[in-house]
Copper amine oxidase-like N-terminal domain-containing protein (Paenibacillus cisolokensis), 712 residues
Amino acid sequence: MKLVRWMTVVTLLAAPLGAATGAAAANESPARGSAYAVQSNGSVAAQDWQGNTDTEGENEGGSGGETVTDGSGADGGGSALDGTNPDDVNPDTFTTDELLMRTDSAEMVLNGLAFQSVQPLVDKDGVLYAPLKTLAASYGYKIGYNKTTKESTAVLGNKELRFKSGSAVAVSNGEKVMGAAPAYTLKGSLMVPVATWAMLTGSVLHDADGEVRLQWTTRPIAAFTVSPKEIFAGQTMVDYRDRASHPRGLPIINEEWTGRESIFLFPGEYTITRRVQDVYGIWSEPYSVTIKVLQPNMPPVADFTTDKSVYRIGEPIVYTDRSTDDGNDIRKRTWKGKEPAFFVPGEKTITLQVEDGGGLKSEKSVTVYITDEVMYTREEFGLRFTPVGEKYAISGGAVLDIPTVPYTFRSQKAQMVRSNSPETWVEEGIAYEDRLKGEVRFLFHNLNQIGRPVKMYLIATNPNRTSAKVGIKAFGMGGPIKYVSTSGRLSTARYLESLAADAEPVWTSLKPGESKVIMNDLNKVPIKPGQVFSAYGDVVTDKEIQFRIVVLDPSKDPLTEMDTLKIMPRDGLHVRGTFYDADRELVITEPLGYEPKRIVLGDRKMDTYLYGLDSTTGRPEHNLGNFGVLYRMKVEVAPNTVVALNARGGHYTGAFLINGQVVKVTNDSILRNANEAAVLYRTGPFAETLDIVFTLASGSNLPVTMMFLPIS
């Protein structure tokens, strides 16, 4: 490299906005053929090729008006060893980073290694510009963009620089600084004045004969984190996590802390500061974290009352929780012995334990007495007071004594694909395929036992000679999760919520012969081994479309792999096929609730199974259980009537849409057997018309009975 000796003293390059400058300084710029380092007070120091610097004015980062060649100062981070004598630095180990650029050339050299910049060094109106992306990457800064302020950002450690196209004002850690000239955009790259960048980073800038050289010392970053978020005086052990790093990967060999404590004894605001030193003796900028130490955490106070101290059997008990915490931070409440009513006479002790965010606990117990006088039996109480979406105990045998309601049904032209065989996947492949047109409901219910995570895709292919459209309407999924009943309940509830929203279809266009993955929520999350996945989705098309359900390793592309995959064999137990007339309206002509009545669903007698076809084999198929069928019914219900669901074939869970509201069976549990009933609706003092929409939930057992029970 050509060595040139410069001894020219230049004037002010740039200064923070509002800084006082002389008239001559404000109108002059550094002369070409000089080397200069920007000081924190806005002065520019001339420098000879050995790096010895003469300074105009006082440098805030050093003492006695002297500085070193790394462009030290407030932004540069002080002297090379931040207070040590520069003469003590070993010149063989104290290294300076260097970026070499030439005007109108995109080839640049960083520390001896040539590379291509995104844009060349540009001389525009006497000002040298370089792309921010190149400068930032050379220094180890991370680039970002703020869409709100339309500013480009460069971040290194706790230092942030901001630039805006068309503005000469830059921002350094929130402070506005007047740069050498406005930044501008060149072919999509933000170009910033090299002199402005040198000033903001405390670099030494050499400019001679079309060659520009930036020199700086890369410092370590002393980052750290403090936890936990809430720190209580005299109580919390504070954890400090090391996040220090070096842009060049150099080892960190030393550190200094101020304000660090394991336990802070008094409340208030504290600033903790750290510096670290690298293997060359270079100290980082101070890195600070400010924390707020709270008053010592006091235990919460558990407190509750009951509205009475003596109750009859089946009499409702009103509990009032009056627990308090000094920080209003009760995180957990644990009740023991709490019941909405008791059905055995004697003393009953109820206990409440509360726990705050700091782990401190408190407990209180209240004892009530239950007489042998009966207000309500257990079943009467359940009818009257069980919240909608919850369950109560009944006599399963007595349910069979309730008369059934005769009904007919009207089938509507609706197609439904049920992909449930094999229910358990043991290999990749095509689970099902068919060509369909119009409205189609898809039902997916499967368990992954392939031995590795997979994804399921629904692929639509246009076999026509003209373009086609595919729209996605209602959709709901449950899982992936290991609990089959939970996946069924969630998918049913979410599908009914989506159905009630009645949103417009989201359309996808397909060119002739084109294939696309649709219903992308299906493949958002891989299905792990042992997990169950259930989903319902409604599709509408304007032409016949070939649909394929593909199960594949997440790393593979389903569109390129689908033609190589085989159809999965059926498992001989579950259902796979395309079914028609899959929407049913149950017609009930009598009002219900004036006496106990029940409607039986999924029994194959009154609710006969759909007929369909497995398109992959040509085999006729019956839709056992009628899963995937969408039922609708409108019933007149008497005043003071409970509508409840009772499982007759084993456990059941799912959801119902009643007058536009989704009711889960149940909110937090399932119907485990025939001795439990879930409350779906409770009428008030007047008769009501109920619009009920439902589909029987995958993973549950049939039949089920919907009961209409008067509250006597």
In short: Helices lie at 23-26, 132-139, 194-201, 378-385, 396-399, 484-501, 558-561.
